[in-house]
Each structure stands twice: as structure tokens, then as C-alpha cells.
Design goal:
heterodimer; A: Rossmann fold; 2 domains; 4-stranded antiparallel β-sheet; 27% strand; globular; B: mainly alpha; 10 helices; elongated
Chain lengths: 244, 276
């Protein structure tokens, strides 16, 4: 029987911004090699959830465990070591404007002193090949289309071979064809590197392609959990409304 | 008691019981909060400055962008400053028959006060707004978060290198700017007279002593540091999306320029105490 390793866990997570209680009591667990899709309306705290997971936002309550370590109160050096095992694809791809695609991809590798220039170059090429953009290596981010930016962002995320990848609305703002390509790419990366992924989205097609398991968030709590099929056949009308 | 009167009484009572909601008190509270955050931000700079890893190549890039790219603006302003200052001063000195004092007067004014202050203000406008807007847009587009999430230290890479570059580049720009201003003064003197280059600069250097040059040079480091820290602070802590980018750029220039005047006032007091 295959052993399931939990790579990240969140328990009783709470987060408010002023009087806006975004997350009330969120619990989730993700295993190695699993794609977990988090679905919810805009402003339901999905992005806040994954930002809490990497310590970008400090939660008001609850605990966040990354690879078994509680990240609360973890000193910066230790947190940064854990962060190197986590990839984060931002909604806007967050490419560094002042750097070329090559420099963007080299940036996360700067701390790896063991890598020579040739090895770094080979890693950059491999990451870009994974997303089908090796020809864009010397382009600046401003020269790339929305889909290409997302792909380069994904390549930059993959370059450190993370064990978990957090996707913040990876298909938002893209046309249906490019959205499908990105969703397929997420699936390919899962198969190739056996990474765990949390995919924040409200794109049902993306969820259908990528999800092993799904969570629906409403009013700061997990309203429903299950496979794509189970969720799409939910008795809750609000949950079903996502699929209509 | 009528219902609406009850409501307005309630509002008044709430105001009285919560004095911090009065606009002036609120503004004062906000001001002190900002000063505290800025102080923390500055201390954080010194902490990160001495801690490895050192981002030398990024520092050199910033020094090039901040220093070298500001040179043409400083050069043009410097030349005009020297020309205008001399042309405007000449009639007044002529009334007292003291036109021969023109090189001495202009050089002391420029080197002691006008040069450092004017070049620092131009620097605050050009570089301060640039840094404020750049960092704010990096914040809005989540580039700073992306650096943090990849296990890098964005403060060290973005803030330390820029503040260091502004601190070290402004004094160099002021030296060059002062020299060009004095050259502008030499041209202006020769518009209505005939003074040789050697004689002009002999008089300039004769009139300047250590107490004129050294404090003026030292204060430019503080000007550069203040402009760098303030603009980085404003950009790094930008809020409210794209609207915040404009606000950060604007407040970087306003506060950066204000800090130049405040530091200058303090520097003048200290200098006059030391050399009186």
C-alpha cells in the first residue's frame, strides 16, 4: 500500500482584516503528489489562505505546518529554508520587471553556491523547456503575453524543484485555450515531479482538469470537500451553482 | 426625547468617549505611527547592511542608475545655477565697488549651501520619486512577495542596495555639480568682464577653507541617506494598489525634500557651533 506523506497542514486558521472576518476556521491537509483545488467566490479568502501557508500573511489564530514544522515563530533563516521547498505562482505571475526571463529564472538559484554558471544555465533551459518557452529566454517581461508570463512564472516556480506548488488563480485573465494549456501544464508538472499543489481558482474547467480533491470555501469556512465528481453532484445549491 | 435627537446624542457621546476619533488626534496618532515605522525601517537597514550576503552587483547597478543617470540633470542645473547666481549678484556688488569679490562670494555660497541643497532637492525629485514609484509598483504586482516566498531577502536586495547607492552617489554628484556651477560662474563673470581662468579659480580656492568644504560635503551623505530611506519606506509600504503608486512617488519627493531642509538646518547649527 502506498504511504501518504502530509506536506502541509492548516488547523483552525483564522484571519480578519479590520471587521472583515475572511477566514473563520479553516482546516486542510495536503499529501505529497496530490492536487488540491480550493474553490470559492472572489474575496472569500482563498489567496489569503495560501499566503498564510508561506508566512506572507500572519494569521490571527490557528496553526500552519509545512513539512511537519509549525511556521509560527520560526526564525527567518529556518522559514526561508522551508520556503525554498515551496513554489508560489502569483496571480499576476510577479515577474521581476527589471530582469530578463533568464535573470528571472536565475534569481531563485543565487543562493545555491554549489551550482556553476553552466549548471544554472542548464536548469534555466530545462525549466523553460518544461513550459515550452525556451525561445523567450532573453526577452523582458514587458515583451510577453499574459499566457507567456504565467508560463515563465511557472518555470521560475519549478526551477527549485519545490515539493509543494501554490497556484494563485493560474488561469485568471487568460483565454479558454491558454487556460486549458496552463491547466494541462499543472497536471504535467504533478506527474513529472510528483509535487503537491494547492490550486486557488474559480475556473471550473481548470478545477476539472487538475483536481484530485476539492475544497469549497464560503464565509471563511470549508463548506464542502471531495472529488470533482462529488462536489459537482453536491446537494448544496450554492456549491452546485459553481458548476452551472 | 425625539428619536433623531437620541441618535445625535449617541453620536456625540461616542465622540466624547473615543477622543482618538477626532480628526486632529487621529492625524497626530497617524504621524507618530509613521515616524515609529520609519525609525524601525531605518534600524532594519543597519541590521541588514552588516549581515551577509552582500548584494554587490545590485549595488553597482543601482549606483549606475542613481548616480550616473542623474549626472546630466545635475550638470545642467549646476551650470545654470553658477551663471544665474553670478549674473544676479554682480549689480549689487558693483554698487559697492566690490565686483572683484564676485568669485569669492559665489564660490562660498555655492559650496557651502546652494550646491548641496539644490542638488539634493533635484536628487529627491528625480531619484526619490523613481524609487518610491518602482518599489510601490513592485509591491502592487507582488514582486516583493515573490522574492520573499522564494526564500530571498527582498529588504536586503531592494532597500539596502538603493539606500547605500543614494547615500554614496549624492556626495559625488554634489562635488561634480559644484565644480560645474563654479565653471558657470566663471563664464558669467566673463560675460561682462575679462578674468582669466587661473585668476578666477585662484580667488575661488583662496576664499574657500576647510570649514566651508568639509561640513557641506558631510551633510550630503545625510541628505542622500534620508532621501533613500524615505523613498524606499514609502514604496516598500505602499498600499491601495495603483493609486498607492502615485501616492508613494509623491510623498517620497515631498518628505525627501522636507528632510533635506531639516537636515540642512541641523547641519548649519552644528557647523556654526563647531566653527564659531
Amino acid at each position: 500500500m502506498k504511504m501518504e506523506t502530509t506536506v502541509a497542514e492548516i488547523t483552525h486558521l483564522r484571519k480578519s482584516f479590520g471587521n472583515n472576518h475572511v477566514l473563520n476556521d479553516i482546516n486542510l491537509k495536503i499529501n505529497q503528489g496530490e492536487n488540491l483545488v480550493v474553490l470559492g467566490k472572489s474575496g472569500s479568502g482563498k489567496s489569503v489562505l495560501i499566503k498564510c501557508l508561506v508566512g506572507l500573511i500572519e494569521p490571527d489564530g490557528g496553526e500552519v505546518f509545512l513539512f511537519g514544522e509549525n511556521i509560527a515563530g520560526l526564525e527567518e533563516t529556518k522559514l526561508n529554508i522551508l520556503r525554498k521547498k515551496v513554489g508560489f505562482l502569483f496571480q499576476s505571475a510577479a515577474l521581476y520587471d527589471s530582469m530578463s526571463v533568464r535573470e528571472n529564472l536565475e534569481f531563485p538559484l543565487r543562493d545555491l553556491k554549489s551550482k556553476s554558471k553552466e549548471e544554472t544555465g542548464a536548469l534555466v533551459i530545462e525549466a523553460l523547456r518544461n513550459v515550452g518557452l525556451e525561445n523567450a529566454i532573453d526577452k523582458m517581461p514587458s515583451e510577453l503575453s499574459g499566457g507567456m508570463r504565467k508560463r515563465v512564472g511557472l518555470a521560475r516556480t519549478l526551477i527549485l524543484k519545490p515539493e509543494i506548488i501554490l497556484y494563485d488563480e493560474p488561469t485568471t485573465g487568460l483565454d479558454p485555450i491558454t487556460s486549458r494549456e496552463i491547466s494541462q501544464l499543472i497536471l504535467d508538472m504533478q506527474k513529472k515531479y510528483n509535487t503537491a499543489s494547492i490550486i486557488i481558482t474559480h475556473d471550473i474547467e481548470c478545477a476539472r482538469i487538475t483536481a484530485n480533491r476539492m475544497l469549497i470555501i464560503k464565509d471563511g469556512i470549508v463548506l464542502a470537500e471531495g472529488t470533482y465528481k462529488e462536489i459537482s453532484e453536491s446537494k448544496d445549491e450554492w456549491v452546485r451553482s459553481f458548476f452551472n | 426625547m425625539p428619536e433623531d435627537l437620541k441618535v445625535s446624542n449617541k453620536v456625540i457621546m461616542e465622540k466624547v468617549s473615543k477622543p482618538y476619533e477626532i480628526p486632529f488626534v487621529n492625524g497626530l496618532k497617524g504621524f507618530f505611527e509613521e515616524v515609529t515605522q520609519l525609525t524601525r525601517f531605518t534600524f532594519h537597514f543597519f541590521k541588514e547592511l552588516v549581515k551577509p550576503r552582500y548584494e554587490f552587483s545590485e549595488f553597482v547597478r543601482q549606483a549606475y542608475l542613481i548616480g550616473y543617470k542623474s549626472f546630466p540633470l545635475v550638470a545642467i542645473t549646476g551650470l545654470i545655477l553658477g551663471l544665474v547666481m553670478t549674473i544676479q549678484s554682480r549689480p549689487t556688488l558693483a554698487e559697492f565697488g566690490a565686483v572683484s569679490w564676485l568669485p569669492a562670494m559665489v564660490s562660498v555660497s555655492i559650496v557651502r549651501e546652494l550646491g548641496p541643497t539644490i542638488f539634493a532637492l533635484i536628487f529627491a525629485g528625480k531619484v526619490g520619486s523613481g524609487i518610491g514609484a518602482e518599489l510601490a509598483s513592485m509591491k502592487v504586482t507582488e514582486q516583493i512577495d515573490a522574492m520573499e516566498v522564494s526564500g530571498m531577502n527582498p529588504y536586503k536586495y531592494i532597500v539596502v542596495t538603493r539606500v547605500l547607492a543614494t547615500t554614496l552617489m549624492l556626495p559625488l554628484l554634489v562635488i561634480v555639480g559644484d565644480a560645474i556651477s563654479l565653471y558657470g560662474a566663471y563664464i558669467a563673470v566673463n560675460l561682462k568682464g575679462d578674468v582669466s581662468f587661473n585668476l578666477f579659480f585662484l580667488q575661488v580656492f583662496k576664499s574657500l577653507d576647510f570649514s566651508d568644504v568639509f561640513p557641506a560635503f558631510i551633510k550630503t551623505f545625510f541628505f542622500g541617506f534620508a532621501i533613500g530611506v524615505i523613498s524606499c519606506f514609502k514604496g516598500y509600504n505602499s498600499t491601495n494598489g495603483t493609486e498607492g503608486v502615485g501616492v508613494s512617488a509623491n510623498s517620497s519627493v515631498v518628505l525627501g525634500s522636507l528632510s533635506v531642509f531639516i537636515i540642512d538646518m541641523i547641519a548649519v547649527q552644528i557647523t556654526s557651533m563647531l566653527y564659531s
